[in-house]
Amino acid sequence: ATRDYEQMEQFIEVLVNAHLLHTSNHKDGEYKIYIRCTDSFGNKNMEDFPLTFTVDTTAPSLLSTYPANSATSVEKRPRITVTFDKTMNRTSVVIALESGNSKVPATISWKGLENTLFFMPSYELLANTEYTVSITAKDIAANPLAYAWKFRTSG
After folding, report:
1. pLDDT tier at 22 (50, 70, 90 boundaries)?
2. What is the value of pTM for the model shown?
3. CA-CA distance, 9 to 6, in Å (whole number)?
4. Which of 99, 117, 100 is closest to 108 using CA atoms?
């Protein structure tokens, strides 16, 4: 009986997910569906089977960046910081630091389970030089974000 219940649960989740993929009229928010079933032997579940799902179509945004857009006199070894307003799919994040046509290698790390990303250049940046940071990413609902900003290092 447990195995049948697990199969039923998986089947229902597939049906719900398939329905949601083809339905675009859901507003953002949490939804709950209650299901009653009868198996091939005529047995009925005694209580409703609840399924909860969330619809999220809102794109993420940045709460803050360091350095700020158009900042000047930024140290030559900055710890670039990006704070998102939503939980991000960390594997989707692509961030780049460039000056002209030169890309600067860097390491990425995250602040625990929070939505803050750190991007540390692998070497000291050139003095009095403009750099562009660009980032593309998706939140956990696959909503995309693309953003770029500039800063200038100290002289």
Report:
1. very low
2. 0.74
3. 5
4. 117
